[in-house]
């Protein structure tokens, strides 16, 4: 359904209500709007417009004697039509830059965790980072470790430093000595191959004539194939510092916070929300009930992909109250994604 375009005066007042509520966390009255935002109309006219906006679903009135505050629809209209481009103060940019670059010399996991934490601290909300997906990573090295007859630990390392472990069945393997030539063969075959293409390369190699007559090569390929067969694992999500949400008056309710914290423990839920940043260009904003998870429908999510535009690696985002400064958070997420993408090229 296409969102109707509000009249200029209605949109001006809706924008003023959103911005005032974001700052104060208190329902907004007409007299305060006229005075603070220098509206060239009377408080009575503002009240009438606010009543109309409430009837259209953009505002609500929590109590009969209270002012008004935005609904999900009001926030959505503000983000889509009224939001002006935000900019980050130099001090904020510096904190983000230093926080991310301080972890560049460490493993990829440390870099992603550092990014989620510094996002949380700077935004005073919860930073999230989705690790690069398996299919966009490139094979660098594999080690095969004998565990016991018939079982092998496969340690797969990507060029970005991500390490994957998987125990696979290998019925004919009886010692570590048998695994050394197999690992050497797999490394020579797969070096530089994107992980999404590794299984296809292995299956093609299995059809080659030399493998048909070489038992060691065939067993090596069988182990490699089992190690890269998808098992439905979710991508890793790094959650910053959820306690920052306690700074927001919306989340001082203990039961509400318990539900949100439980949602943060279920990484699959977060992936469902952040996946849209990998499927659409630019920054994606999900507000309230637009989030597919009931426990997070008091929250908004701002997220975008990092990496090359045509080949995104993962997503970075912020979860906070619907009453968030959207312009600032969008600018923050965009800058963090750019810094993270640059850092990954230097790993």
The total beta strand count reads 10
- Our count of helices gives 13
Reading off the top of the CATH hierarchy, the class of the largest domain is best stated as Alpha Beta
Q: If strands are numbered along the chain, what order do they take across the biggest sheet? A: 7-3-10-9-8
End-to-end separation? 45 Å
> Which word captures the global form?
elongated
Largest sheet: 5 strands, antiparallel
Report the CATH topology name of the largest domain.
Answer: Beta-Lactamase
Written as H for each helix and E for each strand, in order along the chain, the element string is HHHEEHHHEEEEHHHHEHHEEEH
Main structural class: alpha+beta
Average pLDDT number: 87
Low-confidence stretches: none
CATH architecture of the largest domain: 2-Layer Sandwich
Helix proportion range: 40-55%
What percent of residues are in strands? 15-25%
